[in-house]
Amino acid sequence: MNIGIDRISLHTSNYFVDLRTIAEARSVDSDKYYLGIGQEKMGIPPPDEDVVTLAASAAYPLMQDGELENVELLLFATESGIDYSKAAGIYVHGLLEMNSRCRTVELKQACYSATAGLQLAIGFVARNPSKKALVIASDIARYELGSPGEATQGCGAVAMLVTADPRLVAIDSESGFYTEDVMDFWRPNYRSEALVDGKYSTMVYIHTLIESWKQYAELSGRTLADFGRFCYHIPFTKMAEKAHQKLCRKFKVDIDKDTLTALLDESLRYSRIVGNCYAGSTYLGLTSLLDTAEEDLAGKRIGLYSYGSGCVGEFFSGVVQPGYREFLYADQHRILLENRTELTYQQYEDIFNYAVPTDGEEYVFPQYKTGPFRFSGISRHKREYESLVD
Ligand code: CAA
């Protein structure tokens, strides 16, 4: 029985800042961002958008299409948690009016947790083939203003429906995965911005890729020539390109610039203008690939690499299903990305520094443009969400 991704839908903020604006404010050559790290824009969430509203908005088209019937497992992957105790997915479950017969849990391991969620969901469907699982990755990437990481911020959520006989991508059973206790990127509970040892993190990303690939290749018998496309975790697009070049070099496969572009570029298009979505980044890449590839990818095997600092990595793969294009939300994604509002530097900094009171008393957020749901306020330490749709 094939099991895998049946539908995939994304949401990001309606606001973005252009990296030329950041470059000017930091007196840096904008080519460092546009060419050096391969990023052009980054999504910036307004105060009334959080991981819950991003996630619920990402999954909303599935609700509208009646796809959430029979979902008995909701896995919410994030490293931007809003509560030490209650799973953010439960708010999403409520906003989407899902069935109460549903297990709902939040998963954390930096940017890797959605892949853990996907694999757990596949196990669930293998045991309950008539049931579905919903995996949502939702994150807001924040680094200190003026830090080297600043240009690699972003935000977004990707919702994936996992079923038997999936209409988009059947996930292969072989997988290579690797854990090692390292401090390349982390965020202590008392901080709202991540800390990172930037250069070291890129080295650990590559090391973990090579270890994961070695296992995958041994288990599957496949080589790097067996893939139609690759889809990497994308903290910034240059990272994915460098990772693939290094993997090829390590295993003595020649790769020129054109081949690299042909294998990766479609998967990098959304990330280049949305930025890092941490747990969602690999799947933002997969959505970008499926939505924007001009070639019909049906029957092609996609190699996927997921990396979460700290660290866990996994290399796995999936085969694109015939007729997949009919089940994409490509038009909605294009409209969302084309109609965002650009922020000035001052607006970006004001939103970044917007401080939500922590006394838990009554608080109402100003209304910005969000998707179908917004984080409207706080009352007696309880977060309040508002649905903007009937
Ligand atoms: N024109 C063209 N290119 C230029 C340039 C210019 N004017 N100026 C600089 N560049 C190039 C540099 O040569 C460099 O390219 P190479 O790497 O090929 O040498 C590139 O632009 C970046 O320049 P620096 O190395 O000087 O950049 P930096 O040190 O200021 O920051 C970074 C880079 C360390 C990755 C930083 O962005 C960072 O800390 N990011 C956050 C951490 C991160 O994303 N790590 C990735 C792996 S960890 C992970 O994947 C998990 C996760 O999501 C966080």
Account of the protein in words:
The protein is an alpha+beta fold. It has a single domain (about 5-385), classed as Peroxisomal Thiolase, Chain A, domain 1, CATH 3.40.47.10. About 35% of the residues lie in helices and about 25% in strands. The chain has eleven helices and 17 strands. The protein has helices spanning about 20-25, 30-35, 50-65, 90-95, 115-125, 200-220, 235-250, 255-275, 280-290, 330-340, 345-350, and strands at about 5-10, 15-20, 40-45, 70-75, 105, 130-140, 155-165, 170-180, 185, 195, 230, 300-310, 310-320, 340, 365, 375-380, 380-385. The strands form four sheets. The chain has a nine-stranded mixed β-sheet, with helices on both faces. Helix 1 (about 20-25) crosses helix 2. The chain is globular. The chain starts with a strand and ends with a strand. The structure holds acetoacetyl-coenzyme A. Acetoacetyl-coenzyme A binds near residues 32, 236 and 239. Acetoacetyl-coenzyme A binds near residues 31, 201 and 233.
